[in-house]
Amino acid sequence: MLVSNLIKKYDGTFKALFDPQPDDSLATVGAEITYQLSGVSTQIISLMSFEDTISGLTTTRTVERYYSFSTDNINFSSWTLIGDFSEFVDLDGEMPFYLKLKYKRTGTDTTGLITIQDATFHGEWLIPQSYIIVELNSIDECQKLLNPDTLKVFKLTDFNVYSTGVTATRQLEIRFRFSQNSGRTWSNWELLKMENLSTIKVDPLKFFKIEYSACRRGTDTTGTIKLLDIELTGDFQNVSDNYKKTNRYGIRSCCDPTQLNVGGGFGSLNPDGTLSLNSTPQQSAIPEDLLNALCTGSNFNPYQLGSATELYNYLANGVVKSLGWEATYWKTSTDEKGIDREFHEYQLYNVCGMSNIKVMVPENAFPDNQITFNQFDLSLFEAFEIHITKDEFKKAFGIENRPEKEDFLFLCVTNRMYQVEHAQAYRDFLNSSIYYKVILKKYNNKANVRHLSQDTKNALEVLTNNSSLDALFGESNTAEDKRLDKEQLNPLSFDVARKTINASTVIIRNELVNASLLVSDYQYNLSRVLDTVVAVDYNKADGAVLKSDNRSFLSWFKLNNNEPNKKYVILDNYDSLTQKGYKIWFENDQLSFTFNAVQYDLPTPGISEKIWYVPVISFNQRLNYVEMEIYQRDTQIDVDSGEEIGADLLNSSELLKLWSQVWENVAVDEFSQNDLTMKIYGSDMQLTNIRVFTDVIPKSTYKKVLNQKLVKSSDFLVLADNAEEKIIVTNHS
Asked: Do residues 528 and 559 lie in contact, with contact meaning Cβ atoms separated by under 8 Å?
């Protein structure tokens, strides 16, 4: 029987769906049914898992599942019992792929029917990838667009997509993922849109690689979609391209060679990189008046040195103009308000000007960044000397200024900021001072230096942005402080989460355990509060959820009496007039979750009274799905009382999943309403361990998170209420 539907997904996985006919049943022991993947599939790499839905199974009426595959549709592998697919030979993605599935009835029960309802293989397929242009010729065809460069990202603010062939019925869907550990692990594939791109958390200290998955969607089967480029904008540096970026502070290349004026007045660069003399210089090498003075027949005066120093000065400025290095110089001046006249010190400085100048480095002896120790601190270099001609400096800042301590500059060739430690007018030729000898040290952004002009401040911030410890570690430090400052560990007299507790709300002190774990000490009994009256009102608010935001919710609840048409509110953060916010409640044997105007219902047939249940709701807008689950402890039920018994004697704290449902491809939505408040209404139930998180709880941590009395990590925590008693006393801090 040839039945199948192969769905290749954007993330490199596929689903092979087998859709049996309604009469596909196994009536006798030993009976078999075989299905085959219709047609030929290519680009298949591996099989990972299998799931199916079968009715009529019991402990004595069972089935065995087998699979077989081929690359030529003639020679199939032997039937292999479906397990973990560890024996499946991975393919190279280039060969054709044919797949068969077989069911065989086993067991001792010869009565009844076993009916196959659906079956699904999950696996991986090889997405074609490109570093240049992506061409998509058929519907649902996907390709990866790879960026070969490695980046350091400080901020992502926008993107541009360059493509051709896109129409209203011929659409292009682009997703992205990134890695910051050389591709060892990747983030989830998310739709490339501003809400997702601008809110991803990127560590600026780690390298950043990004991949795109482009898929063709729509109904038009004609034509070709070409994805030419995806351009990101923001604040980042290209590590692969010598750290090229807009922020120029650090080891990165950001100089424009066309602005260095290498040729200058005496020579220019040939195509082979050699220096040649200009055939027609812009000006004579020697001023005309100096030539006249040298050629006159006046008496020789050995102490008339003006002409010689003028020639030296002219030669020095010419060399700087031709061979000097570009630098941006910030000039500071002392602030009169900061003069200490007792100790003759200047405490405050003002940045009074900024200009581009050229400097000379003696013998081009740039610092080698070798770590050196001195008696005061650990520095990359002890001292660094440059020369600035007086004419160059006066042209930039006026005849009344000179280089001084606390000035600072950015040297383009080394791509670093330096601070003036010492400057002097150096006298070398005929005791004349033609240039300043300036000693530089490592730059430090000091609080006692202020900018008189916003332009000088902005220019400095462009160069030094993301260079301080506060800028690089500030967000991490804030998150760490938040993680360590756990509100749940505050004394009971410091109730940060709850605003008011209704006088009729009963707080029960009872140890709720699961195996060896203490889950809760206290629980709310809401049965004495009317269902229209607020039982608990919270200080905590969740007034805004963006389209790129996720949420997850969990709690422990027990129905005292399960009455029809009665609403048991677990959490309310909703405005019914504007239909904004979210709420969770139980009614008529189903758990309901509403986000804005959309409601999701999870049927819970057979739910019992006096049993503790753990609902978990995952609202994932980044991956466009909603999942609702309900768990229970693996306890025994007392026949007479209906209560759970033996919870403290369990060997494992693993919770049993009773009901679950997933809604895929849900539409993303958002709200922003400042007057929303979280609250719980009265109902005939008990409630504790109410949690709201800003991200989805990973499945691998369910056992830990669902059993936690105190939330260990508060990085994503919005609300945590353990139903503890509120003690009214005077707080002294």
From this structure: no
